[in-house]
Amino acid sequence: MLVAALWIGPVAAALLTLVLAGTFVPRWLEAPAWLDVSYGVALLCAAWAGVLGLYEQVGWLDLAVHLAATGLAALVAQLAIVRARLVSWPTVGGTRRDRVGMVLVTTTVGAALAVAWEIAEWSGHRFLDPTIHVGYDDTISDLAAGVTGSFLAGLLAVVVARRDERLP
Question: What is the pTM for the complete model shown?
């Protein structure tokens, strides 16, 4: 990370270090391989897009990353909640109530993560690097994309749970 800090700057190095730490969470939770890989790829893409300035060059990329990364992060967080036995994962024979609960919890957790992400963006802009793009329209559209991604991730979790009772 010292090389990254010297080559690309301390803020980018800190971001990449945070992402590296985040990629270990699904492994720790013993997440299914598809979730581990897709979550890791989404985090890495999000970080490198920021480091390389791609968000400024590709207008739609920010919303796509918020949709995918927040949705996958919500699924990983949902898995952590299940592993802590705070809620259950609906199984093949699960009830409609279980499936609706899965979508609601995943969406709610994702909404909270989207808010935390926006607070982190604002904090980065305010205290670390004023070139980090923030603004009302950006924040609201990022939140909308993150919540939408989390809702879709909740639906995906229900589909996966109905097909494979071994999950999570």
Answer: 0.88
